[in-house]
Amino acid sequence: MVGKSRSVLIFLSLATLALPAGALGNEASWLTGLIHVHSNFSSGSYSIEELADRAESVGADFLILTDHDLAVMAYGLQPFQKFLKKKYEKRSIISQGPEVYLTEIARVNAGQKAVLIIPGVQSTPHYFWQGSLLTGNLTSINTRREVLILGLDRAEQYRNLPIVHNPRTYYRLDLFQGELIFFALASMAGLVLLFNRPLFKVLGLGVILLCLAGTLNSQIRVPYPFDQYHDFGYRPYQVLLDYVAQNGGLSFWAHPESVYAERGVSYGPITMRTAQYPAALIRTDNYTGFEAVYGDKNHLREPGREWDAALLGYINGLRQNYPVAIAGSDYHSEGMSETKLNEFKTVVRATGKSKAEILAALQAGRVYALRQLTNYHLILETFKVIGSEGQTADGPGSKIESVGPVQILARVSFSDHESREAAIQLISNGREIKKITGKTPLDFSYNDTQDPPGATVYYRLNVSSTAGLLTTNPIFVSFPPQADRTSE
After folding, report:
1. Which residue ranges of the chain lie beneath pLDDT 50?
2. Which helix (H) or strand (E) segment is 272 a member of?
């Protein structure tokens, strides 16, 4: 039986390598997308129509806009911070109107078919203040701990996003509230002082005014439970992630390894500081994925990091879904931060170029992430796992069951068909199991002898070259329990 299985693997591997470059089967094809792009609807320089033209010029099939949902910061003076406050707001989807945003995207899509534009937002669910204006060290923390949200279709879904500063503020009177009782008693004392000597009158008036201000401040209530004056950890983010999932959208952690604001960036009298947050991949759930390939650091794709920890949690039944790796550019204009529109690409395998099919491919992990540093880039021609009985998991995000050892096959090349040096690293369950270096087209084959009954194993690839890098999402292989094999 073992000899027969080995013969099948050898035959199928030879047949696979003989396929034309990029052959996929099942009428699916690779579509190149640009994700995390800003228009002049918020912080970008170009209109949505201009971005569509630019995306077409670099060969993109789809473009996912992620303008800021709300760009607001507010700081209030203690202890009356709820109404004695300074608010700063920039252009955003909510301030300009979600209806206008969605209508403009629909208009541009109707006027051209080369690039499909998919609406999304970049969201800051929460931040909090440290320090004080009086001491000159006022700092906003986690302003750039952000989430990309894709696939929301209705304006009210944007208006109802559970994020700081988005809810409408309203007043509520609660006569049994402890604060009101305190202020009422203090006000009575102030009234008594008003009917005494002049010095006491001034003191009494001051007490009454402070009590009125305190009463007003205590009665301002917002539906959103996380204010900007306390650190609530990842709870505000989980609330947003759950909301997006409940509304049929996708959510991706944006630039978790960004160093832009790690040491602090000064904006007039305040400083903005956001540390890297790779732990978000482990400490939150119910999200779709994260930006594994970005303009700063790209260590999460390395073996044994937080991505692998989350993947292991998934195959061990501890997570609802596994984090899908994408590429994100945080693009605002050509040359800003030396980023070009076509530098970061997310390549999805879909059966058609529609919004539903592209989002489904992203959610299922039928994706690889790519960074292009030259006028040519890496291409994933083949990535598949062949089971012991010939069954095939073809491409990232696919799954099979195998009763015995499997074979992993891969091939990479360059878009201009020239032969250059590249390296392929195979990672399984958080550890590197093989790495090769050679000239492209570079073929990779590995026979994995592990055969853990009742367990699930995943395989993913990292590819590197002087032209850029490429990261695939995993292929999953489930091995049936020993009892099931015996019964067969």
Report:
1. 1-25, 169-176, 487-488
2. strand 270-273
